[in-house]
């Protein structure tokens, strides 16, 4: 049984799901393990396999005590399977069955839907590792290099978390899905990753920090929705993944803040207010990168009006963000959501049954969180004394999925004609020249305690170590 097991760190697969007493699933996972390692060698971070990295590894699921810091070579990382402790009272949180007992097995009628959710979630984890695999060669410091690898190994562990669920609860189909997760490749036109955003290149560090700020933050909200699932093993997997996710979000939010701070300083320093003349990243380029990644991330929440989303909520497979703390009506049968739609070439407000707007409800939470970070960065800009302010583009800008896709909008969210878009989009999104410039300035800095010119040092080190610490042994 997957419940209430002690942490077993000595098994070939560290776990707290009682693998030792589950020989069939253990055997299946041991069979998958070498394929995973082969994938990691081929698609994981390039060229850093022999280096000792100062990494944290999950060793228990108790709050506070789960992380252990030590030098590890990435291929030797102990990828394990950890669920959060069983809840005292596991009742279904949301939907038609709210208040009934949660499931520890997969009900036949929801098997396909649950498998699809788990596979979609799982697919993003190795995808992100693939997208980031070249970044080690241009790291702005050993501190940042270590953080990149920490994120990468933990995304690998998230794949393990989902593959365990597939093997344990979905039999032959689940094992096949587990294999296919190692066969798709980010950006490969013949076998792409499932969601669009996970096929975009992420090949410079401005993109990396935008990715961990915006894409991992989508991960946070999707995991938070799955944490409210009626399927307990999924809920508890996601709950533990969220504790790791917090660090990825820290890397993104503070990484962007450090670039923004440095860009503002260089803007002030330069006689013409030109950060690029000082070898830095100009603030308008940062704005274009934010526009790009934020808009792609909005796509990850699915369509604004979604019968999929309504069904998933009705059946209790996903809940809302903090379903039990924030809401008293867990069925959401009566409410409506006022949605801005495009009708006959004009923006109009339309009421949509709340359940059909569940993707939009989660997207709202996400946008609120991103706005909080933007405000924080703008306070840094104000303090430095530059006039420039950053903003989030409208949720309608540059969308590829949902009701706004196929129309053109400016960052303020106003409908524009395609000609205006063609004329203006290079002001709103990163250009090939921007990419080339970022490529040019991003030279690796591998000396302990030193940082590239285009980014500020963080305020402190990690894992109890000072900034000058050799976070990666070169
Ligand atoms: N790209 O009813 P709709 C993370 C498809 S990130 C391509 O509008 P639904 C992480 C959709 O699949 C979090 N296709 O949407 C971050 C459907 O296809 P079918 C990942 C898309 O189903 C950083 C059709 O369009 N977790 O963890 O309500 C690093 C109509 O769908 C896209 C999850 O995604 C897209 N952007 O919601 C590492 C959670 N959007 O079925 C990791 C699991 C939609 O008609 N997934 N489509 O062929 C879900 O909950 C839902 O599947 C979605 C879509 C929210 C993604
Ligand atoms: Fe993840
Ligand atoms: Fe993450």
CATH level 3 topology = Ribonucleotide Reductase, subunit A
Work out the helicity level.
40-55%
Which ranges are low-confidence, i.e. pLDDT below 50, for 5 or more consecutive residues?
Answer: none
CATH homologous superfamily name?
A: Ribonucleotide Reductase, subunit A
Under CATH at level 1, the class stands as Mainly Alpha
**What is Rg?**
23 Å
Q: Going across the major beta sheet, what is the strand order?
A: 2-1-7
Average pLDDT reading: 96
Name the hetero compounds present: benzoyl coenzyme A, fe (iii) ion
- Category from helices, strands and their pairing: mainly alpha
Please give the alpha-carbon distance between the first and last residues: 43 Å
Q: Name the CATH architecture.
A: Orthogonal Bundle
Number of strands: 7
Number of helices: 12
Q: What is the domain total for the residues?
A: 1
The arrangement of helices and strands along the chain is HEEHHHHHHHHEEHEEHHE
Query: Quick one: biggest sheet?
Result: 3 strands, antiparallel
Question: Can you describe this structure?
Answer:
With 474 residues, the chain is mostly helical. It contains twelve helices and seven strands. Strands 2-1-7 form a three-stranded antiparallel β-sheet. The protein has a two-stranded antiparallel sheet with strand order 3-4. Strand 3 (336-343) and strand 4 form a beta hairpin. It starts with 22 loop residues before the first helix and ends with a strand. The model has no long low-confidence stretch (mean pLDDT 96). Bound molecules: benzoyl coenzyme A and fe (iii) ion (2 copies). The site of benzoyl coenzyme A has 25 residues, from helix 2, helix 5 and helix 8.
């Amino acid at each position: 049984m997957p419940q209430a097991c002690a942490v077993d760190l000595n098994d070939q697969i560290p776990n707290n799901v009682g693998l030792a007493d589950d020989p069939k699933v253990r055997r299946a996972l041991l069979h998958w393990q070498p394929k995973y390692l082969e994938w990691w060698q081929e698609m994981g971070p390039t060229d850093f396999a022999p280096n000792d990295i100062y990494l944290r590894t999950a060793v228990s699921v108790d709050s506070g005590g789960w992380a252990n810091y030590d030098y590890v070579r990435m291929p030797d990382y102990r990828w394990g399977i950890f669920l959060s402790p069983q809840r005292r009272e596991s009742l279904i949180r949301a939907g038609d069955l709210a208040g009934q007992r949660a499931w520890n097995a997969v009900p036949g009628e929801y098997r396909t839907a649950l498998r699809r959710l788990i596979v979609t979630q799982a697919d993003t984890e190795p995808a992100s590792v693939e997208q980031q695999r070249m970044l080690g060669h241009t790291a702005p410091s050993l501190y940042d290099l270590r953080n990149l690898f920490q994120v990468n190994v933990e995304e690998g562990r998230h794949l393990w978390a989902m593959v365990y669920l597939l093997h344990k609860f979905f039999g032959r189909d689940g094992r096949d899905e587990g294999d296919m997760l190692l066969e798709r490749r980010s950006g490969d036109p013949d076998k792409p990753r499932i969601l669009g955003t996970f096929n975009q290149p992420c090949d410079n560090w401005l993109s990396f920090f935008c990715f961990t700020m915006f894409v991992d933050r989508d991960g946070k909200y999707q995991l938070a929705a799955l944490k409210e699932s009626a399927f307990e093993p999924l809920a508890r997997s996601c709950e533990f993944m969220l504790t790791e996710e917090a660090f990825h979000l820290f890397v993104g939010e503070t990484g962007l803040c450090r670039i923004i701070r440095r860009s503002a300083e260089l803007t002030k320093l330069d006689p013409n207010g030109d950060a690029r003349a000082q070898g830095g990243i100009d603030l308008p380029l940062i704005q274009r990168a934010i526009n790009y990644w934020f808009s792609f991330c909005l796509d990850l929440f699915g369509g604004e009006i979604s019968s999929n989303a309504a069904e998933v909520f009705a059946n209790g497979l996903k809940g809302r963000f903090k379903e039990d703390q924030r809401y008293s009506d867990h069925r959401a049968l009566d409410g409506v959501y006022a949605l801005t739609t495009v009708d006959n070439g004009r923006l109009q407000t339309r009421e949509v049954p709340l359940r059909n707007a569940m993707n939009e409800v989660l997207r709202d939470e996400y946008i609120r969180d991103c706005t909080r970070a933007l405000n924080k960065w703008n306070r840094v800009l104000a303090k430095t004394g530059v006039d420039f302010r950053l903003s989030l583009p409208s949720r309608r800008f540059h969308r590829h999925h949902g009701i706004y896709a196929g129309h053109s909008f400016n960052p303020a969210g106003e409908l524009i004609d395609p000609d205006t878009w063609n004329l203006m989009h290079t002001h709103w999104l990163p250009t090939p020249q921007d990419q080339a410039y970022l490529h040019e300035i991003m030279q690796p800095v591998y000396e302990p305690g030193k940082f590239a010119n285009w980014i500020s040092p963080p305020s402190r080190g990690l894992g109890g170590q000072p900034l000058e610490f050799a976070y990666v042994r070169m």
